[in-house]
Hints:
By secondary structure, the chain is α/β, with parallel strands linked by helices. 30% of the residues lie in helices and 18% in strands.
Amino acid sequence: MGARLGSGNDDELTETHEINVTPFIDVVLVLLIIFMVAAPLATVDVPVDLPASTATPTPRPDKPLFLTIQADKTLSLGDTTTSKEALGAALDAATHGDKTQRVFLRADKTVDYGALTEVMNSLRAAGYLKIGLVGLEAAPSP
């Protein structure tokens, strides 16, 4: 709270009920400058060479459903070869229509990222949203 001085009567001080917003504006402007400088640094494109995973493996279900992409980009559901167009029907037959079942996706090392993404999009279009990516275990580096 502030008091007004010099209004003529020195014995009686009146309070002013105005908020001083200048310090608030100063803080907001400093934060704006900080975010303007930091935002471009958060969106840097860096080429990445992804290493093998050393994470602890999750327990395997009793009867996992494996979808395999081979080097020649053919799809295999379990041991049965299927086409990309018939993938949804084959999954429905294998899971008995249970779209909440996790599908484990395995791909050959030579399969490009675009082909892997197309298969994942086909799984999503068929309604299977729980997808687990399968990889080899790597020994942790010292």
